[in-house]
Each structure stands twice: as structure tokens, then as C-alpha cells.
Design goal:
mainly beta, 8-stranded antiparallel β-sheet, Methylamine Dehydrogenase, Chain H, 1 helix, elongated, 43 strands, single chain, about 575 residues, about 5% helix, 2 domains, Jelly Rolls
Length: about 575
């Protein structure tokens, strides 16, 4: 048996061992806690970018049905005043989780939060000097906003709509993208000639990637797993690997002049790039990196929006033009344009396909215009309720987004926005004011879009005058002024009737006697599914009939007769399932 006696040297070795063990106890848990992040980043796919392609050979695009060229044009659905001063807007981000659009009111230093389902401004997020880029990251309940005036990116909690933290020391933050596979946020530092990387989990800056020229917009391509950045002063695009945070490829953009804004059709492997210097839009094949075609845009094109289901591309230009294109295979076909002062930014709701165009100065105030693409059939009709309450329109003017016609003879009618103190949705209403007493005269105000087949159509109406007649009505499945369905209430006759109008001839199908008071707001509603019609007056069902003469989707609107002076508010069309 060998005995062991501790010496001073042994004590020193024991002390070292104790330190090592203690250090291990501290470090191992830290390593373990960091391991999932490391594994996640390590397992994230690397950016696929070769000199001639951004598309892996294994990629196969989804099959799409053959489509025909859609009807051209954009229909103005409504105008809404926006808060704040009359100055410039910049980027927008649509959050499908909350159904909100985050609109950067750039020179007001705010982000406007707009709810698309209720068509209202939820709030403004303040203290965002010169708010440029914005991007919602629903998986983290975060919204990233470039506050270029403060040289920082603000991180907003989408539940409280308050700024949680800020990432500083960015010379001019602009476009923002989220690389979901790597869980990182990339920010264009335009005048800093770099892309800045932020950790989405911690909100900390990870790195700054030098680009060698001014940064335009930044996007993430989930097929190549690359961050793409327009380098506008070099007429290039670079591909960055989000995992290594390094540039892996550069692409010269022949014919471009200061490329800044772009977006992607990832499925079809197409990139749509605009050039501010020569007002052009290029279509680039991400399989070959070749330019397929080029189109003219308005002067100084900037923000683009892509609707993947309807294959629509929108390009907003500072020169005052919103250009709309439809993608036919790999070729863009122009399908209309809207001219509006400083139409600098655009967004699209992928569910309803509505287009949102905030304008900085219309008659001294900022204004939001909401459009819908022209439709070609019932499958292209509205999928959400639409309400016209006229409150964003100016009293004394004809309502925007409506067309006026007349069935029968006599004058066309005079439809004007008015104020009314007891309006159901104060302050404005729509009034028919022409007092032509021609008996067979039916003025109509028809919403330009959308169209409906099966629909619940309601209105609040107040009959206020008329000696020949004192009526308010709603019309639907409207094909033209001589063919539509109609129900109306009459304050002189005290009844509610249901009609069809065919080839200009109004035919009564059902009449119910009921009190209809003048100078009182009433509710009138018609529900139609297939050939089945139900009519309600002041929330009481009065009529239940069937008719199948008009089956196609049509427009909706309001109706009067002869010299009726009638006020209308809250015209609401809700699509019904068959």
C-alpha cells in the first residue's frame, strides 16, 4: 500500500482543479443555452448563388392554371383622410397575422397603423424621425422601422404598438427584410453603403456588411435562401448568405440607372427591378439572371407591391403614377394606371386584393385611396364586406367611386355629399337633390366596384322630401341602368316593394304595407342567394320571393324615384356563400 501525503504543490493543483470545475459548471449551462441558436443557424440552408443563377437545380415551381388577360383598370373604392401633416410617405408593410398595414409617414416622423378589415387608423407610432423602411415580423410580434433621422432602427411590439428597443449607429437605414431561416433582420444602410444585420431574438446588431456602394432596397428570397440588395450607385445586385453574413455573389444590372426598388415572384423565379434614373422596370429571370423584358414607369419609381394570387404587380412613382401590370407566364402586361400627386408608395392586401395608396397632400391634407382591380366575373368579386359611409368625402361634391345613371326619362339626378347632424355614421351622407317630377324617372348611384352575385345589401336611408314620390331603395346584380334587382321603401305610400328592372321596364313582384315615416332614419336590406330573395325593413323581414332572371354578379347601389329627396348612409355589401 502506497500512502499519499499532500504537499504545497498538490494544494496548488487542487486549487486549479477546483477553478476548472467551477468554470465548467458556469460555462456548460451557457453553452447549452446557446446551443439551440447555434444549431438553428448551422442547420439553416446556405444561400444558393452562382454567377448565372439564384435558383437551385432541384427547385420545381408550383403548377398554375391558365388564365386570360384580366379586364384593365383600377376602381376607386374609397378615400379616407389620414392623420398628420401633409408630407411624404415611404414604405409600407402588410402584416397578414393582424390584418394591418404599417405605413411610414416619413417626413412626419410617424408610422400609421391601419386596420384593413375595419378601414380605420388604429394609432400612430411617434418618435420615428424620417421613417423610411418598415417590415413586420409576426413570428416575433415585432415591427422594424427605419428611423433614418435618428440613424437607428426602432423595434415595435405589435401587441402594444410601442417601441421596445432601438438599434443605433446606422447612417441612413432604409429597406428592411427578414431572413426567416436564419432568424435575422437585414437593413439597407443607404448612404452608409452597407447592409446591417440584427438578431431577431435579441434585437442586437450582429454585423455590418460593406456593399461598396449605396444600398437600395433589401429582400429575402426563400427559394435561394439569399438576402438580395440593390446597390444603386454600382448598378448591381448582391446576394448575401444570411448564415455567414457575407456577400457570395454580385450581379451587374445592364441598362439600369440607379436601381433602388424591387420585389419578387418567388414561385416563378422572377425579380422586378425599377431604376430611378431612367424610369424603367426590368423583369429578371432568377434561373439565368438574364433580363427578359423592360417597361416604362412613371418618373422616379420606388416602391413595388406584388399580389401573388392575382399575379398583379404595382409600381408607385414619385412622378405621380401608379402602374399596374399582370404577369402572363414570364411577361408583364400593362393593365392600367392611376395618376395621383406623389404616388410614392403602394401596398396590397393578398386576401382581398385591394390596393392601398397613401398620398401626402390632397387639398392640404394626407389622404388614403383604396382601389380594387377591375374584375372579370363573380370569382373575382369581393370577399369581404364593403361599406360606403361618405365620411371621408367633401360636402358639396359628388361622391368618389360612384357612377350615376337613370332608368326611364327625365333628368339624370343630382347626387351630392352632405352633412347631416343625426347621420348613423356622422358627419356625411349621400343625398339625391334633383326635384324633377317625371313619374317614370329612377335616378341611381352605383358603386364602381366590387361586384357581387350572392350578397346581403343594406343601407340606412331617410326620406326627406318629394310630392310625386318619397322613396329610398337599393339595387344589386346591376348590369346597366335598365337591368337590375330593386327593393324600395316609400314614405308617401307607406309600403315596401320588391321589383326587377329588365330592359328598362320596372316590374313589381311583391308589396307589403308598412309605416314608413318621413325625416326618420330607416334600415333597408336585401339578402339574395341564388334565386332566393329576402327583404327586411327596420330589421323586420317583410318579403320572401324567388327569381332567377339575373344570375351574374353585378354592381350595387342606391335608387330613388321622381322628385324624391332622400339621404343615404352606410351602404354595406356583404358577400354571401351560395
Amino acid at each position: 500500500m502506497v500512502s499519499y501525503t499532500a504537499s504545497r504543490h498538490d494544494d496548488a493543483e487542487g486549487a486549479v482543479m477546483r477553478v476548472v470545475l467551477l468554470t465548467a459548471r458556469l460555462i456548460v449551462p451557457l453553452m447549452a443555452s446557446a446551443l439551440p441558436v447555434a444549431i438553428a443557424h448551422a442547420s439553416a440552408p446556405a444561400c444558393y448563388a452562382t454567377p448565372t443563377s439564384l435558383t437551385p437545380a432541384s427547385y420545381h415551381p408550383p403548377t398554375r392554371p391558365t388564365e386570360t388577360l384580366p379586364k384593365p383598370g383600377l376602381t376607386l373604392l374609397r378615400e379616407m383622410p389620414l392623420p398628420g401633416p401633409a408630407n411624404r410617405f415611404d414604405y409600407q408593410s402588410f402584416d397578414p397575422a393582424t390584418r394591418r398595414i404599417y405605413m411610414n409617414h416619413m417626413n412626419a416622423g410617424r408610422t400609421v397603423v391601419f386596420d384593413v378589415d375595419s378601414n380605420r387608423v388604429v394609432t400612430e407610432i411617434n418618435d420615428l424621425p424620417r421613417a423610411t423602411g418598415v417590415w413586420a415580423v409576426p413570428s416575433h410580434h415585432q415591427v422594424y422601422v427605419s428611423a433614418a433621422g435618428a440613424h437607428e432602427v426602432a423595434i415595435v411590439d405589435d401587441r402594444t404598438l410601442k417601441v421596445m428597443s432601438r438599434v443605433g449607429d446606422i447612417r441612413f437605414p432604409d429597406g428592411i427584410a427578414y431572413a426567416s431561416d436564419a432568424d435575422k433582420v437585414f437593413v439597407s444602410d443607404e448612404s452608409g453603403a452597407a447592409d446591417v444585420v440584427i438578431d431577431a431574438k435579441t434585437g442586437a446588431k450582429r454585423s455590418t456588411i460593406e456593399l461598396g456602394g449605396e444600398a437600395g432596397n433589401t429582400h429575402y428570397d426563400s427559394v435561394s435562401h439569399c438576402i438580395l440588395v440593390a446597390v444603386q450607385t454600382k448598378n448591381q445586385m448582391v446576394a448575401i448568405d444570411p448564415v455567414s453574413e457575407k456577400i457570395v455573389q454580385r450581379y451587374d444590372l445592364a441598362g439600369s440607372a440607379h436601381p433602388h426598388g424591387f420585389t419578387l415572384d418567388e414561385d416563378a423565379r422572377l425579380l422586378f427591378m425599377t431604376s430611378e434614373g431612367n424610369a424603367t422596370l426590368r423583369v429578371i429571370d432568377l434561373r439565368t439572371m438574364r433580363v427578359l423584358e423592360q417597361h416604362k414607369t412613371g418618373e422616379t419609381p420606388d416602391v413595388l407591391a406584388w399580389d401573388p394570387e392575382w399575379r398583379r404587380l404595382y409600381v408607385a412613382s414619385e412622378g405621380g403614377v401608379l402602374s399596374a401590370f399582370w404577369l402572363d407566364g414570364s411577361s408583364l402586361k400593362p393593365v392600367g394606371e392611376v395618376r395621383a400627386p406623389h404616388a410614392h408608395t403602394v401596398s396590397v392586401d393578398p386576401r382581398t386584393h385591394r390596393v392601398y395608396l397613401p398620398l401626402e397632400n390632397i387639398d392640404g391634407r394626407p389622404l388614403l385611396r383604396i382601389y380594387e382591380p377591375a374584375t372579370t366575373g363573380p370569382d373575382r368579386g369581393a370577399r369581404q364586406p364593403v361599406t360606403w359611409n361618405f365620411d371621408s368625402m367633401r360636402p358639396g361634391e359628388t361622391p368618389v367611386g360612384f357612377t350615376f345613371a337613370r332608368t326611364g326619362s327625365g333628368r339624370m339626378g343630382r347626387w351630392v355629399v352632405h352633412t347631416d347632424g343625426d347621420a348613423p355614421s356622422a358627419p356625411n351622407v349621400l343625398a339625391q337633390e334633383d326635384s324633377d317630377r317625371t313619374d317614370y324617372r329612377f335616378p341611381v348611384a352605383v358603386a364602381d366596384g366590387p361586384t357581387f352575385a350572392d350578397v346581403s345589401l343594406s343601407v340606412r336611408c331617410k326620406p326627406v322630401g318629394g310630392r310625386v314620390d318619397r322613396a329610398c331603395g337599393v339595387i344589386w346584380r346591376y348590369q346597366d341602368e335598365n337591368n337590375y334587382y330593386l327593393t324600395r321603401a316609400n314614405a308617401l305610400e307607406n309600403n315596401v316593394c320588391w321589383y326587377y328592372v329588365q330592359n328598362g321596364r320596372r316590374v313589381e313582384v311583391k308589396r307589403v304595407n308598412v309605416s314608413v315615416a318621413s325625416d326618420v332614419w330607416h334600415s333597408l336590406r336585401a339578402d339574395m342567394r341564388g334565386d332566393h330573395v329576402e327583404v327586411y325593413f327596420d330589421d323586420k323581414k317583410l318579403i320572401d320571393v324567388r327569381d332567377s332572371r339575373f344570375t351574374a354578379a353585378g354592381k350595387v347601389g342606391v335608387w330613388t324615384k321622381a322628385d324624391s329627396r332622400t339621404l343615404f348612409d352606410n351602404l354595406t355589401a356583404t358577400p354571401l356563400t351560395p
